[in-house]
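Shipment paperwork, digital attachment
Item: protein structure file
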Amino acid sequence: MPNRLAQESSPYLLQHAHNPVDWYPWGEEAFTKARAENKPIFLSVGYATCHWCHVMERESFEDAEIASFLNTHFVPIKVDREERPDVDHVYMSALQAMTGAGGWPMNMFLMPDLRPFFGGTYWPPQDRPGMPGFRRVLMGVHNAWQHQQKDVLENAEQLTAFLQGQLKPRAGELPENLHQAALAGLSRAFDPAYGGFGGAPKFPQSPALAYLLSKAWLGDDAAWKHLQLTLSRMAEGGLYDQVGGGFHRYAVDHIWRVPHFEKMLYDNAQLARIYAGASLLGQAGAAERRRYRRIAKETLDYVLREMTGPEGGFYSAQDADSEGVEGKYYVWQEAEIREILGPEAEAALLLFGASETGNWEHTNVLERRIPDEALMQHLGLGPEAFENWVARVRQRLYEARRQRTPPLTDDKVLADWNGLMLRALADAGRWLGEPGYIEAARKNAEFVLKTMYQDGLLRHAWRGGRLQPQAYLSDQAHYGLGLLALFEATGEMEWLEAAYRLAEAILTHFKEPEGSFRDSLDPTLPVKVRDAYDGPYPSGNASAAELLFRLAALYERPDWHQAALSAVQFYAQSLVHNAFGFPALLQAHLVGTQGSELALVTPSELALPVRQWFLPLTTLAFGPPSSLPVLRNRSPGLAYLCRQGACRLPVDNPERLWGELKALYPGTADQRKT
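Attachment content:
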């Protein structure tokens, strides 16, 4: 018999709908039962493409004996962390405070009033060396609840008090050398051989790369070197899907060779935008520009091909597992490649570094470590013929791979992650001159605003016609930045007006009196969710600040600028002591302190060339004088480059405009040759 989760829309919850565990979704029905029966809550949090979540389900949640014990002595609640990031954040913070580590599945035991008192991640059903079994954990917690409830209560009180202090940052003054110190911190963690930060496992750290991209544009040589090496090494390794395009979640080694094969929308959105921007940097050589442009386009094409619904919404993730085996869909045997490609196989094996022995568990994770120039010379092909040959080889392998059993695709649509992809498509579309990307962005915006915007707030999750009621700061902020990018790409005011409404929602619903923004509106959680720490994508606080800074310039709203600045300053102590954890907030600070607005009254012959420039700290405004405050009293055909209301001389051609940009940003390299 299916349990209550059969009525949910989340693919992750539906995966557990036929467990013998009597799961409840997060909500008042479960909370009331726990209070009425004085039972602890067993909260299990995961997501649809989580490998160890699948393992624990098979081993424990399908076990009739374990399920019976859970159902008798606990109130079991199952949560999709991607649908309820606020629930995940609070209890992950608790788990990390208790154990010093975290991960998924996250399994927490809560008081009936939702305060946590014990938890862990994956537990096997039976004891293993160094790891207690889930049966033992359940019996231990039950015995403590029956016989040591006073101790359990004290533990919950202490942990909750600690969380309340931990999640309340301390404001302060931002030092003048903030960005210099931040870059020094990034440099200390940088891998000078393979790029990226730290050792294995190695994550893309997209918010940090986006910050380096802006600093490189400003002329910082160290930022460019870090960015250049990281982007090149990631694109060469198995982290990048050399056949189908797109990036896997992270590398299990430090050389980007063997990935954890899961693919996430947020990684691909951010990295596509970063590669597209890097392809326009003046410091990049011709070969680098071609490579970065290719990676950006292949990544976006992958998302449009495999991660986009017919309505225009972008799906959340693709699993690492296929037929129960991680990576099975993506790896190759040498013999397979020879059979598929025939006479071209020998060259393709060189291209992808594949061999009979393999490079991972007797199989091949495809890489492209040999420089294109060397392979072109070896094959006797010119650049265009080589690119055509590679495209043909990739297509044949891709078509063969499609015959395999594909990984599960989590097809729910999340507003904040869709905002990241909307921004990537709109920006890459105008930077790279690809109108198809802009059209895909437009279709997404039409769908999301029509389907997911309700009662003045953009709601977080939609799937199969069902919209969930939750709305988060990150939804308004990330999607607002995406809408702003779509306006910059098209000049269509409806997108800017929608971004303005989301900014108003941020200030109305999420602004806290002391200066920051709260992430969630849920009053039932034991602590207020408020955080600017960047995970794999920028925090809601950072993106809200950037959105307000940019819109304040276009609408001449100094109060919005001050609200954004207060939000950055609220985390001053965090930025000073751990800048590595807050690169998106550093990026927002750059926009707030060094940002500019470029106003063009239409019609203007400057609109097309300007849209194809990479100007990461400049917000574009197009339209008639009556359409925006920043365009009032401006003359048609002229471009006005301004910073917080102070404008440089208006110009009427690209050459003079670039001169004004160079005067405002002296370190930036000329990119117009691209």
